[in-house]
Amino acid sequence: MIVAFAVLYGYQRSIQQKIFLFGAHLQVSKFTNNRSLDDTSLPLNTPLFKAGTSIPGVVHMQAVATKPGILKTPDELAGVVLKGVGRDYNWNLLRESLVAGTVPEVGADTGNGSTQLLISQYMANQLKAKVGQSLPLYFLGNPPRARKMTVVGIYETGLEEVDKTVALGDIRLIQRLNKWGPDTVGSYEIFVRDFNKLDQTREAVFDRLSPDMRLVSVKEQYRPLFDWMLLLDRNMVILLGLIAFVASFNMVSVLLVLMMERTPMIGLLKTLGGTNPLIRRVFLNVGLNMVLWGLALGNIIGIGLSLIQDKFRLIPLDPKNYFIKYVPIAIDWPTVLILNAATVLLIALVLWIPTIIINRIQPIQALAFKK
Predict the structure, then answer these.
(1) Is 194 contained in some domain?
(2) Which of 63, 211, 215, 299 shows a CA-CA span of 20 to 30 A to 131?
(3) Distance CA 127, CA 166 (A)
């Protein structure tokens, strides 16, 4: 059970971190019927953006903008969505997904914006591009406009929806292409302090929205993935129920066999004045002693295997199906303690039931059973 929970928590954490790379906990954009990938302008001087981290539950807020384009090489081309970011962008999570190079330098004091570009491993394979290579990036227009970009880094998330489309660059490049000022962006990305309190923070942000703003949470944006993770939780409950049933059945069987073998001893103890509750406690203690030794051994094996997998990543996964290259591990120590305590309590209750047979054993019959 320890390994099962460690894998479940590790997998959920890994998938959530990959989603948060390009999908903030909350995203605020202009309320419009425009459903294209080209953002509608949103000013920075709004009460919401000025409030920033003073909003209860908000830990970080950043401005971004997106614009569709086409990356081209002499032999290949790829449609991309350029996500423009500024100095306030949090690169911490994305750095963990880098497979080559580094993140773009954005926010330098150049009026035209940086031409450094971060692309995905999928795009690099498709375009046969590598770090340091210059690529023209074409934007729709009449006539089409092109910018010469330099690939400075390559990332890989394992999320096909992201890897196939998203490239990162300087937000000022998009501002210049859209003829926006430095105080105009495409949307705000908001990160919350506690993801478990996302709905409460969403309400606090919603109260500060202007009528022309739209608020979308990451759960709404990536609903299929979150529904899938919820299904994993339900499957884990079923699995734990089956494990508990099998473990309880085995312990009851062992205790019944033990009582059958010790039937003459039970008769002798009753003859010497032993009460039924006393004899039942003796067998219950024997059963619990076996459970505790089993738990100790199980904890050593479960935690040991989890730590080995976490460090050496021995068990691989197909990223096309599971979004990650190896079985992730996250040991939650409070959960380990709760599992151990719940197991002892459950087994104790289950073991108490078969000891009721002791009440029905007569001393004379028990002593005769020895012959």
Answers:
(1) yes
(2) 63
(3) 14
173-217 pLDDT, tens per residue? 999 999 999 999 999 999 999 999 999 999 999 999 999 999 999
Q: How far is CA 18 from CA 69, 158, 179, 314, in A?
A: 23, 8, 32, 21
For the whole model, what pTM was predicted? Answer: 0.83
Measured distance CA(324)–CA(21) in Å, rounded: 14
Rounded distance, CA 165 to CA 55, Å? Answer: 32
Backbone angles phi, psi at 85, to 5 degrees: -130, 160
The token duo for 155 is 């990332």
Cα–Cα distance between 270 and 98 in angstroms, integer? 72
Residue 100 is assigned to a structural domain of this protein: yes
- Residue 310: give the domain boundaries: 225-368
- Chain segment 269-296, per-residue pLDDT in tens: 888 888 888 888 888 898 889 889 999 9
